[in-house]
Amino acid sequence: MVEFSASILNCDFTRLGEEIKAAEEAGVNAFHLDVMDGHFVPNISFGPPVTKHIRTLTRLPLRAHLMISDPVKYAPDFAETGADEILYHIEVADEETLPKLLELGKPIGVTLNPDTDLRSIYPILPQLSQVLLMSVFPGFGGQKFIPKTLFRISNLRREIEMQKLSVPISVDGGVNPDTAEGVREAGADILIVGSALFSSDDYAGVVRAVKGE
């Protein structure tokens, strides 16, 4: 069964507690925190203080997706304020990035932009808690799903199986009730949904449709 991770970037922050409660009641499995620094991506979102506040509002897993240029510098702040898992971008990494992040004692996943070669992460797959494939270019919510992502999911799934691993694949960007079936069938384990959930009048219906229930 696939997992539904709700991206809070698109929720109503003036009603954050209510939004999180409503998402929980609708059946989401985790919350996805899109952290933007205005450098690696053009927008700025939120930082550790918001993460700390969200931690008081839910017991569900919080995953901090660091769309930032220096994940090693800032990841400890997110780990300390309640993030259960840290996701960094391979595009800003060097050979020391993953070892340093693993020192935090938290699960560490890696994220790839749509035009990043999948092979760049194959050597480090055994150390990862998950691989996040972006199905849009990061920085803005509400973008359309890039169809070639389906081939990338399938190819990554084959590599994970060849290495005899159980690393989950997550997908973020343009995932909604219309695109979710293809994402599931391609082999994704975690579907990250933002605008399709929080712009809906029926959160539970969106969750069911995305999960294929």
From TrEMBL:
Substrate binds at residues 7, 65, 139-142, 172-174, 194-195. It is an enzyme of class 5 (isomerase). Binds 1 divalent metal cation per subunit. Its EC number is 5.1.3.1. Keywords: Carbohydrate metabolism, Cobalt, Isomerase, Manganese, Metal-binding, Zinc. Belongs to the ribulose-phosphate 3-epimerase family. Catalyzes the reversible epimerization of D-ribulose 5-phosphate to D-xylulose 5-phosphate. This is Ribulose-phosphate 3-epimerase. The lineage of its organism: Bacteria, Bacteria division WOR-3.
